[in-house]
Hints:
Layout: E1 5-8, E2 13-16, H1 20-55, E3 57-58, E4 61-62, H2 76-86, H3 94-115, E5 116-126, E6 130-132, H4 147-162, E7 168-169, E8 171-173, E9 186-194, E10 198-200, H5 208-217, H6 219-222, E11 226-233, E12 239-247, E13 259-264, E14 273-284, H7 298-314, H8 321-337, E15 353-364, H9 365-394, H10 408-420, E16 433-438, E17 443-448, H11 452-464
Helix pairs in contact: 1-3, 1-9, 4-8
Amino acid sequence: xxxxxxxxxxxxxxxxxxxxxxxxxxxxxxxxxxxxxxxxxxxxxxxxxxxxxxxxxxxxxxxxxxxxxxxxxxxxxxxxxxxxxxxxxxxxxxxxxxxxxxxxxxxxxxxxxxxxxxxxxxxxxxxxxxxxxxxxxxxxxxxxxxxxxxxxxxxxxxxxxxxxxxxxxxxxxxxxxxxxxxxxxxxxxxxxxxxxxxxxxxxxxxxxxxxxxxxxxxxxxxxxxxxxxxxxxxxxxxxxxxxxxxxxxxxxxxxxxxxxxxxxxxxxxxxxxxxxxxxxxxxxxxxxxxxxxxxxxxxxxxxxxxxxxxxxxxxxxxxxxxxxxxxxxxxxxxxxxxxxxxxxxxxxxxxxxxxxxxxxxxxxxxxxxxxxxxxxxxxxxxxxxxxxxxxxxxxxxxxxxxxxxxxxxxxxxxxxxxxxxxxxxxxxxxxxxxxxxxxxxxxxxxxxxxxxxxxxxxxxxxxxxxxx
Length: 468
């Protein structure tokens, strides 16, 4: 089994067996936390930077911090409103990072959805029960319609659909949906090559006896000593098509045999036709040099399989006759090797897994690059803030710049202090003040809520204010 995450240098991509929805949620959460941490540490750095500037002297004079630098970390909408009103970027050069985090907060989900995708990947799955090709060493005629036969051809269908390799598999799990055979799953294979085509005349398919005589006269088939024919015929007795299967083994001698086949379907018209002739032989895989293929008695095996094989061939394009014959022969070998039986246990020394496809996740390098950039920015801000903090504490006059207005609460408190000339006021005292018409000054301004009526109105306003 693969680990949860691994890197593919071929595709410059990280893969994971974790569900893609979970992976997207993980990275989205990490991005949100990092973005929030950058905003928080950025606010601290803006304050430390302003304090450091205020403690510096230039030509014997204390430096001044521009008002536009005395802001907390703004959201994207607040940033845009500030720039529109003031015509300057809040926070100075740091404002560019501020707008970057605002844009990122809107786009990071599109980013994760674009570069984190669901894919299918090859893994190893545990074998529970099914067909085991190496379980039988005795000569046996492979069954055509038993459960193990159905399992073998379901496995072939799954292998084709999933893009796996074709051959004689060492085992097939009963649930074939995810089967994706690789080289290590293959014991060997039948290989079929097309030979010189035969020629058959209308008189040769006019009756069953005529067709049998033509088959017997074919050098391509007569070199083999055992043959069986599967086919169909019309109501008038003429042949509709045939598949002749021939083995090099004499009768039911118990030895491995080569295979020949002649195919013609459909038969129509009144002129000569060409048969498709194939020769097939079995090859062991280099991964299984000690595997002994099961022995299938030739006469009985071909007799059992000729009609079924003909039915399969009828639905096959002539260009794929060889491929289909290979599948049939591979299947016959696996069924015989299994002993025509479904098994529940593997030998203790056998590989306990089979190759399969699982749903996984593809994580583009763009995701990791963005993650690295966010971590780098956060660490840079933390280091810069620590540096500014050290300078702040090393200055003996740092206490006079301890409180500087940065966020909206700071600015409210500073405005109230200035209006009342009382620097001892704290945030808790803000509830005693309001903004309204001042008769003495004939203008709007900050004033203390001196009357019970003013305080009652203020409390109602606060209680009815929209919650954020």
